[in-house]
Design brief:
Number of strands: 20
Shape: globular
Strand order of the largest sheet: 17-14-16-15-19-20-18
Helix content: 25-40%
Radius of gyration: 23 Å
Largest sheet: 7 strands, antiparallel
Structural class: alpha+beta
Strand content: 15-25%
């Protein structure tokens, strides 16, 4: 974008030396009413040790700009990089007073860039502190922490929090969307281990949210909270004692007929397996039409039990490769998540929920229509995920869920974007008749029209009531946030 799209200087364009002086009062950001407001008062209310106020011409701006999905990258007029909860509160108060819309960023893995914007962005990534309780049973994380850093610190004392497999995912958005991971079946979702939240509300006040304080809001934040109710600054979790896990992998290259049999067998087995076992099943089509399949996952149980359970799959077709390894927890994180360095790619993801084992017709359609270049990943549910009722938290995909289903593709050239998106949409649309119609909010997808019902099911009405109570002007909003009323 050109410089003039960001700055207005009463008929003059700012120079680098002008910006270096920090005279941000001459930079303007658009209000909700199409007017513009100077950043002067915001600059004067925040000290440099509380926040960095960055515009595109600042040398440090690029350090905070990139995101996992380059396809959805947006460049804001101003980014307020906050180091303290009070800085967040001050920025929210200023935005409210001046009717300036904002985006909220704490991580970087929003599939559709819902944490980005072209105006004001409040960024909490520097707030990555970690505080472990004396008894090691709980910890407090700053909102900007990445999962890999949290895992590293907890593993030093033999503890874990059940969350996602990618170490560069932010803990806040992941948890507020539910938080599925490879410890989900034995220990639950990330939001099930959440004990309390500190956040800045729509009035710009710092509040505490838990089972005993703002309990309705706490219900909403566990599965329906990302970007709809406020800006989280801290999260408190309970920990679980885990030092080692069994990591396993099975691989096949088979015909469509055998592939369908394996997919059905996995769906019958995985959600009903001993809860110590969490299994993922990955399907992709090779250029020669053969089907590549992998069953991967981990277990907190005994190795003989795991091998006995996996035999249900090898009885269908002997895998070309099978491994079972006893790893310390951090080695298992690296095994599944790879590098702790951030990756910047073009990608598109979609999701479904399978509420019952897929029909033969559905399995055949999936395998026939699957294009090369798209990974289909089944994530097993059941176990501790089902210990809570669908309405016990805002996360609504518990009872009776066989698995969630990811569709994933990535590429490296912007010129390929249109074709990749069309291929993904065509494939996904073809499978919807065989699916439940539900979707996972953490794999957000702007193609979903009735997104509220897809993400939150029968919990949507209660979420809208809580939204109306805590944010009646819809100040915290993005393309798929909780709406204020029906008919959105």
């Amino acid at each position: 974008m050109k410089r003039r799209e960001f700055l207005k200087f009463s008929g003059a364009i700012a120079t680098q030396s002008f910006l270096a002086t920090g005279l941000l009062e001459s930079v303007f950001v658009a209000t909700a009413h199409g007017q513009s407001v100077s950043l002067r008062d915001l600059k004067n209310s925040l000290s440099q040790d509380q926040a960095l106020i960055l515009v595109p011409q600042d040398a440090q701006f690029a350090n905070y700009q990139m995101a996992f999905n380059r396809r959805t990258l947006k460049t804001p007029v101003v980014r307020v990089v906050c180091s303290t909860p009070q800085a967040v509160a001050t920025a929210v108060q200023w935005a409210q007073a001046n009717k300036v819309p904002l985006a909220m960023r704490s991580g970087g893995h929003s599939f559709e860039g819902l944490s980005q914007g072209t105006g004001l962005v409040i960024d909490t990534r520097p707030m990555d502190q970690f505080e472990l309780s004396a008894d090691k049973n709980t910890f407090v994380s700053g909102a900007g922490a990445m999962l890999g850093n949290v895992y590293t610190k907890l593993s030093q004392v033999g503890r874990v929090v059940p969350a996602g497999s990618c170490p560069t995912v932010g803990i806040t958005g992941h948890t507020l969307g539910g938080g599925y991971g490879l410890l989900a079946r034995p220990l639950g979702l990330a939001c099930d281990s959440l004990l309390a939240v500190e956040m800045v509300n729509a009035e710009g006040k710092i509040i505490r949210v838990s089972e005993t304080e703002n309990s309705e809001l706490f219900w909403a934040l566990r599965g329906g909270g990302a970007g709809s109710f406020g800006i989280v600054t801290k999260l408190q979790f309970k920990t679980h004692p885990v030092s080692h896990v069994l990591v396993y992998g099975m691989s096949w290259n088979v015909t469509s007929k055998i592939a369908a049999e394996l997919m059905k067998a996995w769906q019958q087995w995985a959600p009903e397996a001993p809860r110590e076992i969490t299994s993922l099943f990955k399907v992709s089509k090779a250029k020669d039409g053969s089907i590549n399949m992998r069953a991967i996952g981990q277990s907190l149980g005994a190795e003989n039990v795991l091998r006995s359970e996996l035999a249900r799959l090898s009885a269908i077709a002997q895998p070309t490769k099978m491994t079972v390894e006893d790893l310390d927890f951090m080695s298992s994180v690296r095994h599944f998540g790879g590098s702790f360095d951030h990756e910047y790619i073009f990608m598109k993801g979609k999701s479904d929920y399978i509420k019952q084992v897929m029909s033969d017709e559905g399995l055949e359609a999936m395998l026939q229509k699957a294009p090369t270049g798209i990974d289909i990943i089944f994530d097993s549910y059941g176990g501790a995920i089902r210990d809570k009722a669908d309405d016990e938290t805002a996360f609504a995909h518990r009872a009776g869920t066989v698995s969630s289903l990811q569709y994933y593709t990535q590429w490296y050239k912007d010129a390929d974007t249109k074709a990749r998106l069309e291929t993904m949409k065509t494939f996904h649309d073809a499978l919807r008749p065989y699916m439940s119609g539900s979707a996972y909010f953490n794999y957000c997808d702007l193609d979903i029209k009735d997104y509220g019902r897809a993400y939150w099911g029968n919990n949507l009405e209660r979420l809208m009531e809580i939204k109306l109570q805590h944010d009646p002007t819809n100040f915290f909003a993005h393309a798929q946030s909780i709406p204020l009323k029906k008919g959105f």
